[in-house]
Design brief:
Layout lengths: L5 H4 L4 H12 L7 E4 L3 H9 L7 E4 L2 H9 L3 E4 L3 E3 L4 E3 L1 H7 L4 E7 L2 E3 L3 E4 L2 H12 L1 E7 L11 E4 L5 E4 L12 E4 L3
Parallel strand pairs: 1-2, 1-6, 2-3, 6-9, 9-11, 11-12
Antiparallel strand pairs: 4-5, 7-8, 8-10
Helix pairs in contact: 2-3, 3-4, 5-6
Amino acid sequence: STEEDIKTKSTHHMEEKERIGKYASTLIRNDDFVFIDAGTTTEKLINFIPSTSKATFVTNGIVHAKKLIYKGLRAFVIGGELKLTTEAIVGVTAVENLGKYNFTKCFLGANGIDKIRGLTTPDIDEAILKNRAYENSYITYVLADSSKFNRVFAVSFGAMNRTCIITDKLSDEEYKNYTIVKEVGE
């Protein structure tokens, strides 16, 4: 399957992404070492992080890095190949760079969430990078609006049972048998 570009994605489910980002920002503490994945929902999270936060941030998102530093937050961007459609840094170098870090928390996006296939994305390079962040984080949060559930994309990058999913609403309560799901509806 193919992936829409970042500009198109940013026009979908805007209010839901705002609510998810706002809630997710409340989970960041001053002593956290945080990875923020590139993506439109994870970008919303940055809007709500207070400029007084003492947490340290690492990202593979170009827009994310700019937003973090403009807020005066301590931010690192990993090196690697720039993928234009998602404005994400990916590839072998990016994964190697990410492997050096041990995060207290990471916030990931997902294109699809399925009870059997877990967390999925259409791009192998992004999947490998997401998996490295997932593996190197004490707590993993997946920020995903309700349209991502019951969808499977080409590459799995993590199991649901090691994450907490933050979403606007959950229409299939059975997902709560697999992981923690926090709904942040209206």
